[in-house]
User: Fold these one by one.
Assistant:
Number 1:
Amino acid sequence: MRWEEKLASRTARMEASAVREILKVATSPGVISLAGGLPAAESFPLEIMEELMGAVLGRYGARALQYDASEGFFPLREALVPLLAGRGIETSAEEILVVSGSQSALDGMGKILISPGDAIAVEAPTYLGALQAFNPYEPRYVQIETDDDGLIPEALDAALAQTSVKFVYLVPTFQNPTGRTIPLGRRKQIAEIIQRHDVLLFEDDPYSDLRYAGEPVPPIKTLAPENVVYSGTLSKTFAPGLRLGFCVAPEALMHWLVIARQGVDLHTNTLGQALASEYLSGGHLARQLPKILDLYRPRREAILEALANSFPEDFRWTRPEGGMFIWAEGPAGLDTEKLYRRALERNVAFVPGKFFYVDHRDGLATMRMNFTAADPATIAHAIELLGQAIAEELHG
Amino acid sequence: MRWEEKLASRTARMEASAVREILKVATSPGVISLAGGLPAAESFPLEIMEELMGAVLGRYGARALQYDASEGFFPLREALVPLLAGRGIETSAEEILVVSGSQSALDGMGKILISPGDAIAVEAPTYLGALQAFNPYEPRYVQIETDDDGLIPEALDAALAQTSVKFVYLVPTFQNPTGRTIPLGRRKQIAEIIQRHDVLLFEDDPYSDLRYAGEPVPPIKTLAPENVVYSGTLSKTFAPGLRLGFCVAPEALMHWLVIARQGVDLHTNTLGQALASEYLSGGHLARQLPKILDLYRPRREAILEALANSFPEDFRWTRPEGGMFIWAEGPAGLDTEKLYRRALERNVAFVPGKFFYVDHRDGLATMRMNFTAADPATIAHAIELLGQAIAEELHG
């Protein structure tokens, strides 16, 4: 039997992404990869894991290994309240839903909200994982224009006036893939626009804790609480392998997100949640985060300095105050997918930018580079090699 | 804004089940619950968890906390090969997909295979969690008749001749909710039928390790390997809170199951997978399983003895050699939902059987009782109280 012939109509929208293949190649031995989005292994609190495990078993015993509520392990939901308050989001444990990585909140949003053909507004470029989560629910996308300050509010306003969208999807802080942060002024405009159009915003905020310079900007959730589903993660500040995310949604949606979760995996793994609740309430995050920032800060400085030294004058790139990514754009006519192959011959990998656009004919001259996975010297070396590949690609 | 008005069309199929409410009530203080499907907390290998954690950190270090492949943590996939071989399923690590509890394999199957309106064949009664996983993908169900030996092959054959189904969903061993096991003869018939009709079978096998008496029966996967997606779990023999399931599927489907998983949660939590790989490869399961069986065996004996003593003669019930559930049927005219409320006044809970039928007008006189969560004396007392409630309900 050719089981492929039995696939659902939606499955055609789920083709393996070229990026998946790029990321596979990028992990080949000898390749310096600026392609992935991995936190550095050195950022994990390995040395306290056994202590956390002991504390969890002592405090919760068998409960840490048992089935638990779809809404999340209650002590973790309680421990997330002050974390959210630190970002300006006043909420209660009951209003927080724990999810299996923020990816699972994206899947839940798609599942409960998107009927085939519904429109979703996204930044251009946008986070690829969000498209992968939404695609099976067969939306069409409205790409909203961006500039160095991220989403352009006037473009959003015009798009919402023209098209009825199910929701707007944004990564407002240290965006993946660009590293851009939407400034407060624009956030206020966006809050006003979504309220005026009575539109829901999914605010995906995985990176805001990773700030190496400058001042925090409040989440849009704080500016339009009833119109925003806010999502965060512990993947960057604890450990991604635990698959722990969380979200705060208007009550009417929370009900359905919980039911959707039940069908997908019953609930997020209890042991990971119990470890995270100890990590947060025991003050470990407060001690670990400065170490993570100290680890990444010189990596950001290294990549920015190397870019200034090695990239040609007709390149532009972002200078984010945090997060994990730099976004660069070469001169018109440059094809970064070809550049990617040339860079790989030099054992350096990045992600060609076009994959972050809904329409892959956009962003042909753009590229995303991660600066958290490698040490400063390696990053500097990789950028130097990339500069050589660029020179060769442009001037042959 | 009334966000409910923005819900996707599929969301109407996802209403909170009445069972969810029943299970909530059943966990109230003072209530003896035979309603849930929880493994006993005493079955968890709590005393070795710190040792496992130490072994995992020593062997894998940061890798146990990092992002990992959507297919699963490779050492766990390797450790599952001999476990599957012990059930007669010859496979390789590369052919095994780790999922976030077998619930997530059900979601994946629904996502990649079900277009709205597609038919799925299920036993009557069937596992409720499967319906919850499939419903968002808007199938219609074909109920296949069962008897004391589970699915009736002739009924399946007739249904497949009449209706083209996307797949058949079965729990052939110690079924939830009935506890029934399909005997080898019928399995051979089912294997022949699905091959002849060129139909896919999803064989959900969470309970086969929990055998307290009798001889194992081979999975249908061993009889029709190319037509079966086989799914198992570590929830009953390690810890459900880790959310670890696995499946073996024909290659063409595995590809799509992996892509679907990527969109839903990227991958199953790495730490849990690493702990499980140590649990399996370190011989801990082989030591723990006999303890679990010794724990549950007297509970099964207690419920069967209590039923014989306390339930009236016009009741019939299953006598499973394993698993977690007994299924009982009272005389025609009995409404077990009314009985449920009467039982609750006596502080005993079970699940009325109609909720396990696609059509809730079926199985009005049936009920599911769990026998693994409480100790033998408590079970015996609960069944005695239930017997009193039944007598009152039937004879007023």
Number 2:
Amino acid sequence: MSTMEATAAKIIDQPIVDQLVAHTSVEMEEVNKLLLSRVGSHVQMVPDIANYLISAGGKRLRPMLTVAAAMMFEPKGQQHISYAAAVEFMHTATLLHDDVVDESDKRRGQDAPRKIWGNAASVLVGDFLLGQAFMMMVDAGNLEALGILSRSAAIIAEGEVFQLTNAKDANTKVDDYFEVIKAKTAALFEAATEVGAMAGGANLADRSALKTYGAQLGIAFQLVDDALDYGGVSGTIGKNVGDDLREGKMTLPVLHALQNASTTDAQFIRENLGNQDASEKAVSRVVGILQSCGALQTTLDRAYEHADLAKAALAPLAERNGARILIEIADYCVERAA
Amino acid sequence: MSTMEATAAKIIDQPIVDQLVAHTSVEMEEVNKLLLSRVGSHVQMVPDIANYLISAGGKRLRPMLTVAAAMMFEPKGQQHISYAAAVEFMHTATLLHDDVVDESDKRRGQDAPRKIWGNAASVLVGDFLLGQAFMMMVDAGNLEALGILSRSAAIIAEGEVFQLTNAKDANTKVDDYFEVIKAKTAALFEAATEVGAMAGGANLADRSALKTYGAQLGIAFQLVDDALDYGGVSGTIGKNVGDDLREGKMTLPVLHALQNASTTDAQFIRENLGNQDASEKAVSRVVGILQSCGALQTTLDRAYEHADLAKAALAPLAERNGARILIEIADYCVERAA
């Protein structure tokens, strides 16, 4: 067995996320260097907050997707590195602003930056990172890719405003929910894989396939997140379970239950939606309702459907470098909530 | 007298701001149309908030500067219109985020958007407008101009974080203050006039002159704002006077007084800096101290110096279309606080 075959065999043995990490490790090293070089500021609070989020715990799934999308084709120069770094900065900016918007105390199991440095700093450092993301894109010199990322920035924000408008509104429709998650989550996944494909020099059809892959993966990813917020299909109660309930977010598990649970149970959910002080006992009962009326399983089923659409989009490109990993990642994204 | 001469004579009779408005009115009509077409969203809260700020009361000084800078040369097509609209969107996004950062209740004499729609919506609609600003710049198709505006977005945010870091810190230096206002205010003025000149096809020397003009005007503008926050040189007590004191902002009037007022007076200022509940009586006494120790006059003197630098930058271009208005605007910006 050649060294290369040995390496390949070794990669295949690992869980799929580790395979993605190994597959993109050389490029992600470059991405990380670029990120670190761009959070620098003599205003110490800027790198403090940015590094707190960027260095600590993040999976860097989105920039890995950009790099992996590029590697399926023939990336030249550093464009895919710049795009990946810009995607990660946009994501980090979104996290900083989301925590302020949701008044969250925790992020990735740690104190949210706004708990340490305050809301004001979180808003401003998010703005700084957004500006830096666009500067990196300008340096990369491709107007079309810049258009894709700036459009996704506007779409993400618009989707989050829509989500805000729907909060605690029991008349929210399932279609509204899908519109929200396509905008707030899938838009960046979609942009990440599309600009990756562009940096790889993909033709229009292949670029469109990667764009679809990213969009569908993003939808699946958010569906799973929304199921996990109620403990996943198993309904396991852990920390942060019930955050969406307390914030009044009209996610699919809740929407499904409001339509399918008994009148009494639906009423109980309505009473607790948006109640910041809902007790653990109340959350437990809501989780029980969601589980028994099939809301969590239905959410996961929908996630599998979108993961399948993501995989189908890449099927014609399955023989390309690393495509298998991207295809398998789709299932992994859903299984974490099973 | 020809119609054109009559129009010119009529314009010269008017106060200088009205002259700028008249000079740029045809182009600003286009800018306004573009702004309105770009705040559209089926998520009603987006145009509601954006129009509340954009339609109501704003002077639109920054986009007028972009248009006027372009008109000094030979603007072709719609590029100067797009740039001006992008500048106004960036400014509006900054206002939305600033109100959240400063916890302000008032904006342009009306309730701040965050008082009506909340902090969350203000943060998100600001992000939406930033995304739209970059999309407009992408549509305009000039990477260099995009680089200038995205860099200014990062600089503005960085400057505001620096201001936050300095809040209530009596060790803040005058140099720190100037660094903050160059970033948080002058950077956008500078970008506004530079991209305007670019859209007009200015050569590098003329573009650099317009860039300097914008930067110096922006510094003068903020110095004046900071004097006005304590009632201007006359120390007139009106609504919003003392906001900076209560927020603990280390502006030049305060920095000057801390160094030049009596020990007792300086101590009184220190005690009230950052005290959200400082009484009107306390604010009155601080204003009295700032006035008697020359802090407000010094601030205005510095503003005149920077206005002079702005005027000097345009002197070699004084014969160009509308240059006289831009030159006179510099003095006007300062006189409003005299």
